[in-house]
Design a protein that fits this description.
The N and C termini lie far apart (178 Å). It is rod-shaped, with a radius of gyration of 53 Å. By secondary structure, the chain is mostly helical.
Length: 130
């Protein structure tokens, strides 16, 4: 009697193993069938993802181009302003130099006039004494 119970357990184990194997095979087959059925939609989703990625890259490139153009514009504007400031500083320096030169020539002219006047007075004094 013991022997038949043991045999029944072995049969139950063998049956369970067989059922598990068949179940795994059925699940694998169902999975393969689902993958084959989903293939067109998977391809469509993949193409859509690629299109979105391409559009994203194009937008990034456009932003980069606009950013570079803006940097170039700002640099050109800064260079123009610097050139204008340099020109203004040069003009101001020339104007200061001209004012200074005019003042020096006026001082020299005034000094020459004073010397001539002094020399005239001296000559007049000498003429009166003689």
């Amino acid at each position: 009697m013991e022997h038949s119970v043991k045999n029944k357990k072995e049969n139950d184990l063998a049956d369970r193993r067989k059922a598990a194997t068949e179940s795994k095979a059925a699940l694998l087959q169902a999975h393969r069938a689902a993958m084959e059925a989903a293939e067109p939609t998977r391809l469509a989703r993949e193409e859509e993802r690629l299109a979105v990625a391409k559009a994203r890259e194009e937008r990034r490139a456009e932003r980069e181009r606009v950013k570079l153009e803006e940097q170039e514009r700002v640099a050109a504007e800064a260079a123009r302003q610097q050139a204008a400031a340099d020109a203004a500083a040069g003009a101001e320096a020339r104007a200061r130099q001209k004012v200074q030169d005019d003042m020096i020539s006026r001082v020299v002219r005034d000094e020459a006039t004073r010397k001539a006047e002094r020399d005239r007075r001296y000559a007049n004094r000498k003429a009166r004494k003689a």
